[in-house]
């Protein structure tokens, strides 16, 4: 009878000790482990036109519960850091960004954001205005400005060429004059003009010019401004 009582007491004592160990966060006789380090990543937006600004967010779990670094690779050679960061894609394409988190023990985990699609920039040309700039004593024989009469607004791909057609008519009576040059203001770039310059207009004569410009590469709405150099 005494042996049975001693055995029961021993079992109770062992149980109490095990419960105390588990309650205090220590290792149980059967062992314990923390969740493995992992990280999830998200991005917004995941598609759009260049230049596309994307906000990235990472969230780590497990490991040592203290995370020292978040290192981002944006799939095009660009990099960043932090649990939250923003990156701008200026070149069309499809990219896969990845983040690697490191915890205080040196363990690492990586997660990817697949399928960030960047489309070519979309440029809306709302119109154009070209203003004559006179050199010499003669002036006023062209219209005060030339604007878009048809085809505006129009939408083209960023960085593409667009050709402007305008007809200049001389109101001079006694003299000829020259159309010497066409220039455009930033962010557009002058490409070419046809016919070749200079072109001489006799009194009352008209000439049609095709001025080709290159659009900017950033999505948006633009109005082209330019100058006609003449004398």
Q: Architecture of the largest domain in CATH?
A: Sandwich
Radius of gyration: 36 Å
Mean pLDDT: 87
Order of H and E elements: HEEEEEEEEEEEEEEEEE
CATH class of the largest domain: Mainly Beta
Largest sheet: 6 strands, mixed
Q: In whole angstroms, how far apart are the ends? A: 127 Å
Topology readout:
Layout: H1 2-23, E1 38-44, E2 47-49, E3 52-61, E4 67-73, E5 79-81, E6 84-89, E7 93-103, E8 108-119, E9 122-134, E10 146-147, E11 154-157, E12 161-169, E13 177-184, E14 189-194, E15 199-201, E16 206-214, E17 220-230
Parallel strand pairs: 2-8, 9-17
Antiparallel strand pairs: 1-3, 3-6, 4-5, 4-7, 7-8, 9-10, 9-11, 12-16, 13-15, 13-17, 14-16
Give an overview of the whole structure.
With 231 residues, this protein is mainly beta. It has two domains: 35-119, Immunoglobulin-like; 122-230, Immunoglobulin-like (Sandwich). It is 10% helix and 54% strand. The chain is built from one helix and 17 strands. The protein has one helix at residues 2-23, and strands at residues 38-44, 47-49, 52-61, 67-73, 79-81, 84-89, 93-103, 108-119, 122-134, 146-147, 154-157, 161-169, 177-184, 189-194, 199-201, 206-214, 220-230. The relative contact order is 0.15. Mean pLDDT is 87; it is low at 1-31.
Distinctive features:
6-stranded mixed beta sheet, Immunoglobulin-like, 231 residues, mainly beta, disordered N terminus, 5-stranded mixed beta sheet
């Amino acid at each position: 009878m005494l042996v049975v009582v001693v055995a029961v007491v021993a079992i109770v004592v062992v149980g109490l000790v095990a419960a105390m160990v588990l309650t205090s966060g220590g290792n149980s006789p059967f062992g314990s482990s923390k969740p493995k380090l992992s990280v999830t990543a998200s991005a917004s937006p995941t598609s759009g036109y260049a230049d596309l600004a994307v906000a990235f967010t990472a969230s780590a779990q497990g490991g040592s519960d203290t995370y020292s670094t978040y290192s981002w690779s944006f799939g095009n050679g660009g990099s960043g850091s932090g649990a939250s960061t923003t990156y701008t894609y200026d070149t069309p394409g499809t990219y896969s960004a990845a983040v690697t988190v490191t915890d205080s023990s040196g363990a690492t985990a990586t997660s990817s954001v697949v399928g960030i699609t960047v489309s070519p920039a979309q440029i809306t040309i709302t119109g154009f205005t070209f203003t004559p700039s006179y050199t010499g004593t003669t002036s006023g024989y062209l219209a005060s400005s030339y604007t878009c009469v048809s085809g505006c607004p129009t939408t083209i791909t960023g960085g593409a060429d667009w050709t402007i057609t305008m007809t200049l008519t001389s109101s001079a009576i006694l003299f000829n004059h020259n159309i010497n040059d066409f220039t455009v203001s930033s962010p557009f770039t002058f490409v070419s003009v046809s016919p070749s310059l200079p072109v001489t207009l006799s009194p009352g004569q008209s000439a049609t010019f095709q001025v080709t410009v290159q659009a900017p590469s950033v999505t948006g709405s633009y109005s082209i401004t330019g100058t006609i150099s003449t004398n």
